[in-house]
Structure formats: C-alpha cells, structure tokens
C-alpha cells in the first residue's frame, strides 16, 4: 500500500480554453491537490493507494470522496471544520502565464491534528508514505502532525518539496524557519524531489555551474550531503518557451555508498501544453512507481518512465494523471513521436 497525505480542494477553471477568469461565466469544477494527484496517478498505474486528509462534513466532501473512489484510491478521512479549500486556475496560452489563486485559509485540512487518524494502523499497512512541502506550509498543526509521523514510521517515505511561498503564513514566510521545518521533515526521506528553485528557496542549495548536468549534479550532491539517509534525489527540468510550449525532462541521482550516479531522461518538446498543473505530481508518482517496480538497477528506466508520465499529463485537462503503465511504455517506445497506434 502506498499512502499519501495532503489537502484536496476544489479546482475552478474557465471551461473554454484560453478564457480568462475575468471574462468567463462557465467554469469546470473538479477536485485536485498535489498528494491526491500522486495517489491517483499511482492507482491508474495499478498500485494500491490510499489518501489521507481532513474534510468538512458536507456535500462537497461527498463529491471529493466519490472522485477518489472513482480513481480506485482508498480515502482515509477525518471530518472536521466547515470549509473545503478552493483554488482558481487560469491556464496560460502563448505569452500569457498560467496562475493560481488560493482560497484555503481555515480549511478543514489546515486544522488536522495527529490524533484525528489511526496512524499505527495506517503505517502498519503502508509500504511507502508520501507528502509534499505544500502540507506543512498550510498550518503549524499539519507540520507538527507530519513531523510526528515521519519520526514514527518505519516505511520508506518521499517528499516533493513543492515550495509555495504564499502558503507559509504561520512562519511569517521566514526562510530560516521554513528551512528548519522542511529539514526536520526530510531528515530520513528515501526520496526528495523538486525543481532547481525548490532546492534553492527552501534549503539555499544552489549551483554556479552553467552546464545543466553539472548544475543539477552539484545541487543533488549538496542535498545528499545535507540528508545522508536519503538515497534518491529527483529533479524536474522545464524550459518554458511560452505557456503552451515547454521543453521537459528529468534527472534522477542515486546515492550508492558515497558515489552519486546520474540518470538523465529523454527530453520532450511539448508544443501544445493543455494544462501543466499537476504535471510535477505525475513526475514524482512515476519515480515512486519505478523505484518500487523496476528496482535501483534500472534507474534509467525509472527516470524515463517518470518524465514520460509527466509529459503525457501536459496533454490533458485537470490535475491528476489518468494514464496506465501501457500508455507510458507506448510513448517511451515511440519517443514521443505521436505516431498512431494501430
């Protein structure tokens, strides 16, 4: 069982492609959130997953739980408070950037506490536990909950850094405080994932190298030095030519007895990005899937798989990946050529 923990919200997006929030009067409303996206992606790849969160006791929560079950994710829910978080997204096109507006203050999830869940039972059944840096940013009580969980769990766990400056209100958005919180949470992580700016903004880990491979290797080296219990560092790389045209690939660094191995994926040229929200979650889900199913000796296969899964998620609307293992392998074989499968 893979267990993820985090906040799931309602995502509100203009129904018609290219429309702005200001001009739209028809919106697509669906659940979404980083850790639930990882659980759904893994479930669609055939893994047994459960998702833990807090929701209010109302119809919106019923809709959210139904959504999880439709994707074969086992919900583990505590019912508290009266608010389900909301976020508005406007999908960019060409030179116009995408952006997100959060409305999640005082949500049910922000009030979650350790004793709301039976962690002994949850962790006993869990092979791999996952959360992102979004969750501890939401509230001090969630950060404390997570710190206790990672101190107690005997299973492997992963952290997607997912730095969101606007959410760290309870620390006063103080970089040193945020660093301290995330350092405690990542201390024994098997896998730490993020992009270049995540490592810089949270931990102050930077590189002056100009060559991309050398730059990311230095970032991974510094991260592994800071977190000696960590075995894997994954870094996603996005070059945004415009909102709808991105170059995308990924890196996986493996710490083997003090020697770091680098695995770099095939690069995809994404010429018609439909929706990039949630694509990083697909990348992390692909890494977790590969580590659990392919093994460390096939790390190249793992990074290729994760990068391809995330590339595919750029081609659909909505947060979560709906692609199967076969879908991913078909694209890997074709190297993203888009040839018709007959």
The general outline is globular
Query: Count the helices. How many?
Result: 11
Poorly predicted ranges = none
Tell me the series of helices and strands, N- to C-terminal: EEEHEHEEEHEHHEHEHHEEEEHHH
User: What is the total tally of β strands?
Assistant: 14
- Termini separation comes to 35 Å
Q: Kindly report the CATH topology.
A: UDP-N-acetylmuramoyl-L-alanine:D-glutamate ligase
What number is the mean pLDDT? 95
Query: Gyration radius, to the nearest Å?
Result: 19 Å
Helicity range:
25-40%
> How much strand?
25-35%
- For the report, how would you describe the main beta sheet? 10 strands, mixed
* Count of the domains: 1
Q: From the helix content, strand content and strand pairing, which structural class follows? A: alpha/beta
Q: Examine the secondary-structure arrangement and name the CATH architecture.
A: 3-Layer(aba) Sandwich
Let me know the CATH homologous superfamily.
Ribokinase
**Main CATH class:** Alpha Beta
Polypeptide structure, described:
With 342 residues, this protein is an alpha/beta fold. It has a single domain (2-334), classed as Ribokinase (UDP-N-acetylmuramoyl-L-alanine:D-glutamate ligase), CATH 3.40.1190.20. It is 36% helix and 25% strand. It contains 11 helices and 14 strands. The protein has helices spanning 34-44, 59-70, 119-124, 134-138, 140-152, 175-186, 196-203, 212-226, 279-293, 299-313, 325-334; strands at 2-5, 9-14, 27-32, 49-55, 73-79, 86-90, 99-103, 128-132, 156-160, 191-195, 232-242, 245-256, 259-264, 268-270. Strands 1, 4, 5, 8, 9, 10, 11, 12, 13 and 14 form a 10-stranded mixed sheet that branches. A 4-stranded mixed sheet has the order 3-2-6-7. Helix 2 (59-70) links the parallel strand 4 (49-55) and strand 5. Helix 1 (34-44) packs across helix 9, helix 9 (279-293) runs antiparallel to helix 10 (299-313) and helix 10 (299-313) packs across helix 11 (325-334). The radius of gyration is 19 Å and the shape is globular. The two termini are 35 Å apart.
